[in-house]
Amino acid sequence: MMIKKAMFFLLMTISLMSFSQASDLYKAEKEKIHDLVHTKLKVDFSFSEKTMNGEAWVTAKPHFYAANKITLDAKAMLIHQISLNNKKLKYVYDNSKLIIDLPILYKRNEEFTIYIKYTAQPEKVHQKGSAAITEAKGLYFINSDGLDKNKPTQIWTQGETEASSCWFPTIDAPNQKTTQEIYITVPKKFKTLSNGKLINQTEKGSNRTDYWRMDQKHAPYLFFMGIGEYEIIKDNYKNIPINYYVEKEYAPYAKDIFGLTPEMMEFFSTLLGVEYPWNKYSQIVGRDYVSGAMENTTAVIHGEKAYQTPGQLIDENVQENTIAHELFHHWFGDLVTTESWSNLTLNESFANYSEYLWREYKYGKMNADMHLFDDVSAYKNGQNFDKHLVRFNYTDKEDMFDLVSYNKGGAILHMLRHYLGDTAFFEGLKTYLTEFKYKTAEVHQLRLIFERITGKDLNWFFNQWYYGAGHPKIDISYDYNTIQKKVTVNILQTQSNAFKFPLTLDIFENGKRTRHTVFVNGRDASFTFPYTKQPALIQINADGVLLCEVNENKVLSEYVFQLKNATNYIHRREALLEVIKKQDDKIVFNAVVNAMDDPSYKIRILALQNVDLINKFSKKNVIQKIMLIANNDKKTLVQAAAIETLGKLTDPELQSIFEKALQSKSYSVLGKALVAMYYVNKQLAIAKSKTLPDEVRKILATPLTRIFIEEKDQNELPFIAKSVLSGMFLSNDDASKNIYQKAFTLISESNNTEAIQNLVDDMVVKGNQFKSFNFDKVVINLMRRMVQDQKTKNLTNKVRNIAIIKEAMAKLL
C-alpha cells in the first residue's frame, strides 16, 4: 500500500483520531483455528443498488485441533444459503462474523468446502479507515448510475486491512493464504482485472463472464477486482505479460507513465536473487481511489494521481516511486506476508525502501539520498517519536499505517544494509524470501536469518530500532589540543533511551577529506583524532545513514565550507538553509549563487528560491546566470524556479525570457511563466491563460488562480472553485495557500451561483471521503462562514446561494 502523502499529512494535522493513544491490550497474531485452502467466487452486480450477488465456495481445514464449527468474516451481507455437499448448514450471523455448524468433527488436515450464496452490501459497511486508506467498505461503485458525464462507471475493490470480507466470506487475516478463482459477470462494454491469469471469457446476451484463476497462495486482503471501460496497453518482462489498464484519454501516455515497470522487475529480481514470483503483472487506475495505490497480487491499483500528460511527465513522473513500491510488495507483502498487523514493517518498510533502491540504481546515489531525506523529514515532523516500529499495543490496526511503518522503517533498513554490508544484506533478503515464500513471517525471523548468515548478534539493533521507539538526538562538542594537534569529538545523547550505533565522521584538513567510522556504545562517548592543521570542518553523520538529529554550534564560515564541500545532500542542504540568512556578506551571497550549480537539482531550486537580489553584489551578473538557468538547466523544475525568481523582479526587460518559457513543453515552466508575465505584460498573460485547453488549465490551477484572483475575474470563479479546497489544505507553500484563502473569500462573498455550487460540491465530496478524520466538520464550518458572508452582502442571488450552501451542509450533517 502506498499512502496518499499530501492528504495523509493533512489528516494527521486535522484529526485527533490520527493520534490515538496506544492500547494496553496486546494485539496478537490472529489464532489459526482453520486454514484457508482455496476460494472460488462467482459474482455479478446491481449497479443501481450498489450491491453484488455472490456465490462462494470456501475450502478450509482445521489448523491443528479438531473442530465442528468454522467462523468466517462476512461484513454487512445478506446470507441466502449455506451448504456442504448439497446439505444445508445451520449458522449464526451477527452482520460481521458468520459462525457455521459443520456436520461432523473435522480433524487436522481434513478439507471441506462450504457453499455460501449471499449479497454484498458495501454501502452498509461501517468500519474505520486510516490515514493511508481513507475508507474500508471493500467494494466500491464509482458513478454507478452514470449520471456524472465527466466520470466513468467503474467498480474496484480494496482489501487491506480486513475489508475483503465486505465482498466475500473468508478468514480475513494476513496470516491466511489461499489460492483462488473468480467468475466476474459484467456488461460486455467493461474490461475486468483480477489476480492471476484470465483463463477464458464467455458471452451470454449483453453480458460477459471473465474467469480468472490464481494457482499460487496469497492473503485474502490481496484479492482484487477492477471493472471499467479501459484500454489495455501491453508490455512484458521476459515471458511475463505486463499490462496497463487506463482510460482511453491516457492510452497514448500509458507507457510514459508505467513503462519503467519491466526494467524495475528485472532490477529487483536480480538484486534480490529471486525472480518475480507470479505469472503476470497488471496495473489499473481507479477513479476516486481511497489511497495512493495497493499491491493486490498481480493486479495493482493506482489512484488518479497516476494519470499524467507529457507536460507533467517532462518535469517528473510523480507516480514512479509508487510504481516501484507496489512492485516490490510482490516479494515483501505478497510472497512473504506479515503474520500480523503489528509486524506490518515486513510489508511496508521494505516497499518504502524499494523506492530508495530503485532511485539509487536508476538515477544515482545523490538522487536516492534526496528521496531518503524527504522521507525521514516527514517522519521527524510527525508526532511519531514515541511509536515503536513493531507495535503489539496499537488501538486500531489501521493506526499501523503511518510514517513509522513506512518512512522510519525504510530508513532503518538503510542503516541495517550499511551495517551488514551489501553482500550480507541482500543474501539475507534472498534467504528470507526463499524460506518463507507463500508463507507468513514476523520480524524475529528476519533477524535470525541475518544472524545466521553474518555470525553477528543483532538483538541490540532490532531491540532499539524495531521494538523500541525514537532515534538518537545528539549534542556535539569539540575539544582541540593544539599542542598535541588532536581533536576530541564529544557525543552526548539527550533522548531518554540511549542508542548504540555506528557513526561516520568526515574530517576536512588541508583540502583533503578523511572519513572515520566509530561505534557509539553509550549515552556519552568521545573519540580523538590527530590532525596536522586544524580542520576546516568536521562533518558528523557524514554518509547520512544514521537516523538521528544532530545539534552543534557552527559558525557561518563552517556552513559556507560545508555547502561547497560536504559529500552528502542533506549536509549541503542544511548549510544552504543557514547561509541564506546572512546574504549581506559578499562571500555568503556568492556561496548561494554558486549553489545554483549544485549537482542536486533540489539544492539548485532552493538557492534560486532564496537568493536575495535586492541591492546585492554583482546583481547584473547573477541575473544573467539565472536567465541562462531558465533557458538551459537540464531539469525543467529548476528552469521553473529560475523563471519564478526572475518574475519577482517585475522587470519588463525580462519579457523575452518569459515569452520563451510560455512555449515550454513543461507545465511547471509554463505556470511560472504565466505569473511572471502577468507582472510585466498583463494583457499577454491573461490572453494566454484564457486560450489554454481545459485539461491544461486544470493542471495549472494554482498559477491561473493567482492571476484570476489578482484580476478579480468573476467569470473565472467557477473554474477556481473546483480547486479551492485542495489548494487551501494541500498546497506545498504558504504563498499558494494564501492565494486559495483569498479565492475562498472572493467566492464566499460573491454573487456567482455557479462558483458557489462548484465549491460546495467539492466540499461535500471531500467531507464525506475523509469523514472518519473529522474533515466533514472542517468543511461544515467553512460552509457556515459562507452563509454568513452571503448574509452580510447585498447580492441579488443571496437567497439562492444560501439555499445551495445549506443543502450541501445537510448532506454532511
Automatic annotation (TrEMBL):
Provide the alphabetized UniProt keywords.
Aminopeptidase, Hydrolase, Metal-binding, Metalloprotease, Protease, Signal, Zinc
- Tell me the leader sequence span: 1-22
Does the keyword section mention Magnesium?
A: no
Q: Tell me if Aminoacyl-tRNA synthetase is a UniProt keyword of this record.
A: no
A Pfam entry, by short name: Peptidase_M1_N
Recorded GO cellular component terms are: cytoplasm; extracellular space; membrane
- What sequence ranges are listed for the domain Peptidase M1 membrane alanine aminopeptidase? 260-465
Class of enzymatic activity (EC top level): hydrolase
Output the InterPro entries linked to this UniProt entry. Answer: Aminopeptidase_N-like_N, Aminopeptidase_N-like_N_sf, ARM-like, ARM-type_fold, Peptidase_M1, Peptidase_M1_aminopeptidases, Peptidase_M1_dom, Peptidase_M4/M1_CTD_sf
Q: What is its EC number?
A: 3.4.11.2
The residues covered by the Aminopeptidase N-like N-terminal domain are: 38-222
**Which cofactors does this gene product need?**
Zn(2+)
User: Which GO MF terms are attached to this record?
Assistant: alanyl aminopeptidase activity; metalloaminopeptidase activity; peptide binding; zinc ion binding
The Gene Ontology biological process terms listed for this entry are:
peptide catabolic process; proteolysis
Catalysed reactions listed for this entry: Release of an N-terminal amino acid, Xaa-|-Yaa- from a peptide, amide or arylamide. Xaa is preferably Ala, but may be most amino acids including Pro (slow action). When a terminal hydrophobic residue is followed by a prolyl residue, the two may be released as an intact Xaa-Pro dipeptide
Gene3D superfamilies, alphabetized: Leucine-rich Repeat Variant, Neutral Protease Domain 2, tricorn interacting facor f3 domain
**PANTHER family reported in the protein's UniProt record:** PROTEASE M1 ZINC METALLOPROTEASE, PUROMYCIN-SENSITIVE AMINOPEPTIDASE-RELATED
Q: Which protein family is it in? A: Belongs to the peptidase M1 family.
The protein here is known as Aminopeptidase N
Q: Which organism is it from?
A: Polaribacter aquimarinus
